[in-house]
Write a structure and sequence with these properties.
heterodimer; A: about 575 residues; mainly alpha; Cytochrome Bc1 Complex, Chain C; two-stranded antiparallel ribbon; 21 helices; about 65% helix; about 5% strand; globular; B: about 270 residues; Cytochrome Bc1 Complex, Chain D, domain 2; 11 helices; about 0% strand
């Protein structure tokens, strides 16, 4: 432990530390100086000892945080050299295959960063890889939060903030993808313009507003630049801060386990354990993205050439996080209506505006929808095992399947090329799968969850099957069951008994109609559907009789003189 | 009015079709002279190519006629080759696309089964069915070595990138057809492909892309082949799809492995 942290640690204990050495003295003096003027220690004493639970999956959000920091740091470097201007210049840099070509200053400066700024290509690649990792980590973190029910009360608002962060991350990514003004940038921008145009009534004017006239014009580069380096990151920073403060204030959830209750947090203090772990993890994330960027090309803009509105490249794709929208657009059949001389492009409107609008709204509102259906308004600080919420887990896998099919179709041309298939067949197949697979995924996932619940119940009631069969002198065969590890028992017992909402009476005792009966009945029916097939929770009585049964078995075995082997097996389970 | 008795007499005596007859006779005369002169000059040159044509006709009957017909008239299994030209034959056979291994959406590139000499013989034979693009000369091809690469890049992005990808790594077309990667194609093959427009490819004749521009395009493709990926592994130069695949597997895998390591309980 370094001298500084030793000083801070002992100060939080309230004792004046006895320190030796010049460095220790200096740090103690600095700390005292700061404390005298800011009253730092009162806040630190409370907050640095805050306990956080330990699990690798709690670090997924941290990956997002650290990759965001990496993106910020490298982004600052890039702004020193990037020129946000559409002014045409003759390229005269080091990249021979573009020498003498008229290109925008934006593209020229990105080429300059890649080939003529020392370390520029590495920094650009770190920026891009870390940006991809940022969104990957957000999504994986979101999945962890979803499948463990961490969004339930009191954390619904933090879920909404998280969805806001995800949306802003997509926006940050898209604006960043556009800035180099290479052929892919312009193609993506053209599609974005088309999507905006497809919105009835305001679309055309929206495009004029965004591009300051017809596409592409010259205004979008400085505008996207400001959005990319100032507006979106500023909002992201604000939301990330709010997200973290809420985690801090509401305390982190924890997985079920021994001595863990809804009212406590079992783990390690922030200082020094998590300071060290999180600080170290930042450098690991930075290191991994740097290694990746040093070894693997990302977005070789020099290969694509400058954007010209009359040019396009095959295999033009967005970055992965826009892939599901690209896939939806590629999947939609060509349906267009003309009403009173106005065109409604359902082929663009449905996959690019309506579908994502519904998906993102459902995502943001999911905690409230689930709470309404289940009627569960309790506070939850213990995470749920996915199997213990089979309907939610099923819905999650169903949504994920829907998303992944859209996403895969975004690369339908690459899939067709790589596997020598027909792109038409791939697209048709995806159209069918989009509607067929998700319901199947729901049913299968729910069944798997219920199966796991039954196994948990069996484990609690009968212990672990040891595979050791005893033949008693009476001829009876008995399998010896070892008791479950107490730590695991605590996890298995975490399943809560929840009953579906009761069906409301149509009329009360006085014959008065129940107000809002239809809605209440719908809610009760949905709640019933939600909890249908759930395996009953093991009651204490059952647990005791289960223990008793196991004990009886051991005793029977014992009376026939096979005790030593049995007790060996039994104690082996106790550890 | 001044009378012209002589002219009037001439007009009366001449048959109405006489001028036409004169023209036909004159044309026949020219043709006869041309045929004699041409045959005399071509005789020495054709004696060598005649053996090529004979050899080609044998190879054609063995390897091609079952689909393209004995007289290259075509069948339900293969198109007519009348007017296909030597360049087309050379491209298709030298890249191994012909003979077809199996019917499919598109002929695939594979190792050629004929030697260069045999391919030349086949090309010479097919060229006798009707005029078509000839195999480009060495002088036509080699011009790429001094051609303007950047200009070639512009031409490539305008004419080729929408199917073959901006980096020439290939792309999918409709119904199982595809624009192949250009990274294995030789300058001669690229030139021939532009001349003849094999399979789904349009013909880029000299009117739309003059020789110099074809050479520039070849120069750009050759540069793409040499380009040694300054950013590291190229991931197949297939764009954001393979990048996404990489970050979701290797990238995420590495950081999660680190997270598991950090989060592991000390026992």
């Amino acid at each position: 432990m370094s001298n500084t942290s030793a000083a801070m640690n002992t100060s939080t204990n309230g004792n004046q530390p006895k320190l030796s050495g010049p460095l220790a003295k200096a740090s103690a003096a600095t700390y005292e100086y700061l404390d005298d003027r800011t009253g730092l220690s009162a806040g630190l004493r409370r907050n640095l000892r805050k306990v956080f639970p330990d699990h690798w999956s709690f670090m997924l959000g941290e990956i997002a945080l650290w990759s965001f920091v990496v993106v910020l740091l490298t982004g600052v470097f890039l702004t020193f050299f990037y020129v946000p201007s559409a002014t045409e210049v003759v390229y005269n840099g080091s990249y021979v295959p573009l020498k003498g070509v008229m290109i925008s200053e934006a593209y020229a400066s990105t080429l300059n960063i890649s080939f003529d700024v020392r370390g520029g290509l590495l920094i650009r690649q770190i920026h891009h890889w870390a940006a991809l990792l940022f969104v990957v980590a957000i999504v994986v973190h979101l999945l962890r939060v979803f499948f463990t029910g961490a969004f339930r009360r009191p954390r619904e608002l933090n879920w909404v903030i998280g969805v806001g962060i995800l949306t802003l991350a997509l926006l940050a990514g898209f604006t960043g993808y556009s800035l180099p003004d290479d052929l892919l940038s312009g193609t993506g921008l053209r599609i974005a313009g088309g999507i905006l145009q497809s919105i009835p009534v305001v679309g055309t004017w929206g495009v004029f507003l965004l591009f300051d006239g017809e596409f592409p014009g010259t205004a979008w580069i400085p505008r996207f630049f400001v959005a990319h380096v100032l507006l979106v990151p500023g909002l992201l920073l604000a939301l990330i801060t709010a997200h973290l403060l809420l985690v801090f204030y509401q305390k982190h959830t924890q997985y079920p386990g021994p001595k863990r209750t809804n009212e406590n947090v079992v783990g390690y203090p922030l200082m020094p354990v998590y300071m060290a772990k999180a600080g170290g993890f930042f450098f690991i994330v930075f290191g991994i993205t740097t290694l990746m960027s040093a070894l693997v090309t990302i977005n070789p803009i020099w290969l694509y050439g400058p954007y010209m509105p009359d040019q396009v490249t095959s295999g033009a794709q967005p970055d992965w996080y826009i892939g599901w929208l690209e896939g939806a657009l590629r999947m939609m059949p060509p349906i267009e209506w003309t009403i009173f001389g106005y065109t409604i492009s359902w082929n663009i409107l449905v996959p690019s505006v309506i579908m994502p609008g519904i998906v993102m709204t459902l995502l943001a509102l999911y905690p409230f929808i689930e709470a309404w259906v289940t009627g569960d308004k309790r506070e939850h600080n213990i995470l749920q095992r996915p199997r213990n919420a089979p309907t939610r887990t099923g819905l999650g896998v169903m949504a994920l399947t829907f998303y992944v099919i859209l996403w895969a179709n975004g690369g339908n041309d690459i899939i067709a090329l790589a596997f020598n298939w027909s792109i038409n067949s791939v697209t048709t197949l995806m159209r069918v799968l989009l509607f067929v697979l998700p319901p199947i995924a729901f049913v299968i996932t729910k069944r798997i969850c219920l199966g796991l619940q039954r196994r948990d119940r069996d484990k609690l009631l009968h212990g672990i099957e040891t595979g050791r069969i005893l033949r008693l002198p009476s001829g009876e065969f008995v399998e010896v069951h070892a008791p479950v590890d107490p730590d695991e028992v605590a996890v298995l017992l975490s399943k809560e008994e929840v009953l579906p909402l009761p069906m409301p009476p149509k009329r009360d005792a006085n014959g008065v109609r129940t107000p809002g009966y239809a809605i209440k009945a719908l809610r009760a029916r949905m709640s019933n559907w939600w909890y249908r097939d759930d395996v009953p929770v093991v009651t204490l009585n059952e647990l005791e009789s289960g223990h008793h049964h196991a004990q009886e078995q051991v005793e029977i075995a014992g009376t026939y003189g096979v005790e030593p082997t049995v007790s060996e097996e039994v104690t082996a389970g106790h550890r | 009015m001044i009378k012209r008795p002589f002219a009037a007499a001439m007009a009366r005596r001449r048959h109405p079709l006489a001028p036409l007859l004169v023209i036909v006779v004159a044309l026949l005369g020219i043709a006869a002279v041309y045929a004699v002169v041409n045959a005399a000059t071509a005789k020495a040159a054709t004696s060598a190519s005649e053996t090529m044509v004979t050899k080609g006709s044998k190879l054609f009957a063995e390897g091609c006629a079952s689909c393209h017909g004995l007289n290259a008239e075509g069948s339900s299994d293969g198109p007519s080759l009348v007017g296909a030209g030597a360049a087309s034959v050379h491209f298709q056979v030298a890249t191994g696309r012909m003979p077809l291994a199996a019917p499919g959406a598109q002929a695939m590139r594979k190792p050629p089964i004929y030697t260069e000499e045999e391919i030349q013989a086949l090309a010479a034979y097919v060229a006798t069915f009707g005029p078509g693009p000839a195999i480009p000369s060495a002088a036509q091809i080699d011009g790429w070595k001094t051609a303007d690469i950047a200009r070639g890049g512009e031409l490539f992005r305008v004419n080729c990138a929408q199917c073959h990808h901006a980096a020439g790594s290939g792309g999918a077309l409709t119904n199982g057809k595809y624009a192949p990667s250009l990274m294995k194609a030789s300058p001669l093959e690229i030139y021939e492909a532009m001349l003849t427009g094999p399979q789904s490819m349009p013909v880029f004749g000299d009117a739309s892309l003059p020789m110099e521009e074809k050479q520039q395009i070849i120069a750009y493709i050759e540069e793409m082949k040499r380009n040694n990926n300054p950013g590291g592994l190229s991931l197949g130069r297939l764009g954001p799809v393979t990048e996404g695949l990489f970050i979701w597997t290797i990238g995420l895998g590495a950081v999660i492995a680190a997270a598991v390591w950090i989060g592991a309980k000390v026992r």
